[in-house]
Amino acid sequence: xxxDWCWACKRDHPILSEVEFGAVWRAYQEAEGAxxxxxxxxSGTPHENRETLLRLQGSHMPSTVPPGATNRQIRYQPLKDxxxxxxxxxxxxxxxxxxxxxxxxxxxxxxxFCGRLLRNERxxxxxxxxxxxxxxxxxxCRRER
Length: 145
Ligand SMILES: [Zn+2]
Ligand SMILES: [Zn+2]
Hints:
It is built from four helices and four strands, in the order ββααααββ. By secondary structure, it is of the alpha+beta class. The protein has two domains: 2-107, no CATH class; 114-145, no CATH class. The strands form two sheets. The protein has a two-stranded antiparallel sheet. The chain has a two-stranded antiparallel ribbon with strand order 3-4. It is elongated, with a radius of gyration of 19 Å. One zinc ion is lined by residues 111, 113-114, 116, 126, 128-129, 131.
């Protein structure tokens, strides 16, 4: 696990190796299976969905779901739990679903100029420092100064 700058969130956050992410994913899938057995569709009002989830969760109801949590927070609570259990970190943020991209395969290699992670493996331009090396013989900086 490393903390790196994420171009999608525009801030630093942990980025798990594929092995670490796999462990989080498995723990999440297990928790989901224990909670619902099958996949779940939520189609009611936030209040109805919360009631449905609370009923389905029964004894699996995580004690850490805060009152006033949104559907998404309740829905992805097991993901947050899995992430925190596997990494030993505390998830900071309002939307646990974002954990799904806290994995190294979501990113490209580091930018050769500023070291921040590129958007994908084929990226030839860095949106952080503005360097563009589509033509490696003529690297340009596209950032307006
Ligand atoms: Zn991010
Ligand atoms: Zn860069």
